Amino acid sequence: ALDQSPHDIVYFRTNKISPPTIKVLYGRPQKKGRDLFGELIPYNKIWQVGADEATEIKFYKDVIFGDQKVDAGTYVLYAIPGEKEWTLILNLNIDVWGVNTYEKKYDIARVKVKVSRAEPIEAFSIGFKEKKKYIRMTLAWDTTRVSVPIKA
Predict the structure, then answer these.
(1) What's the whole-number average pLDDT of the chain?
(2) What is the pLDDT of residues 103-130, one digit of tens each?
(3) 43 with 53: CB under 8 angstroms?
(4) Is the CB of residue 29 less than 8 Å from the CB of residue 145?
(5) DSSP character for 37?
(6) Is the full-model pTM beyond 0.85?
(7) SS3 61
(8) Cα torsion at 137, 147, 68, 56 (round to 10°)?
(9) Which of 36, 74, 73, 63 is nearest to 149 (CA)?
């Protein structure tokens, strides 16, 4: 059966012809009138950052994710959403579905990020913006936004 949430890929490149620095593959659930964070997605519990297959993030070179050094490679991105801050997690156990197989022992980075608010968006989205010395990866859904700085 087809997944209800389409999968999407977002790349970060310094320009259109440069090789990618980061790639994220993720499911994009829709809000569909539901109350999301704190309701459908409980606070203080592990979340798969999207829908269906776990969200994978690939770093093409060593990076600093938040304040933690991370080797080039592919990881699963999880989150523990909270009202005012989230914990973003990089985990070594890839090619998994949802959070059923999540094991903390495979975490290689945990970074706390603040929650901000913006206009509501219907589909869960991940995007990149280049700031002076780092890349900002933002997760956005409904009115919730969280961003993590990445130095590559």
Answers:
(1) 94
(2) 999 999 999 999 999 999 999 999 999 9
(3) no
(4) no
(5) B
(6) yes
(7) coil
(8) -50
(9) 63
